Amino acid sequence: AKPNVLSKDPDVNMLHVFVLGDKQPVEYGIKKLKYMPYHHQHQYFFLIGPPLLIPVFFTIQIFQTMFSQRNWVDLAWAMTFYLRFFCCYYPFFGFFGSIALISFVRFLESHWFVW
């Protein structure tokens, strides 16, 4: 296990949006390295971080890992979750309502996870 090591731990490898540490965000922000104004990330973290962390970033990362490691059983179980979810909620909310519901639930889950 390599917790909180930037190149090893996928949970903290979010360089396109956030940079961890005390010195690196200031250096990246002032030198305009990469993509964001990292020296101001303390101001925009809760606007961008929780809504993107679990609903978008982790979901994409989980599916990429399953594909790259050719873990077809986990992929099948993940797909059955989404299939069961849409079978249950599509009759009540329709397609876009179901997408909105799962996005909202993941959004709340992400805020809970970050706090």
UniProtKB/TrEMBL annotation:
Recorded GO MF terms: oxidoreductase activity, acting on paired donors, with oxidation of a pair of donors resulting in the reduction of molecular oxygen to two molecules of water
Main location per the UniProt record: membrane
Membrane topology (UniProt): Multi-pass membrane protein
Gene name of the record: fadsd6
GO CC terms of this entry: membrane
The name this protein goes by in its record: Delta-6 fatty acyl desaturase
Signal peptide as annotated in the record: none
Matches recorded under PANTHER family: ACYL-COA 6-DESATURASE, FATTY ACID DESATURASE 2
Superkingdom of source: Eukaryota
Location(s) in or outside the cell: Membrane
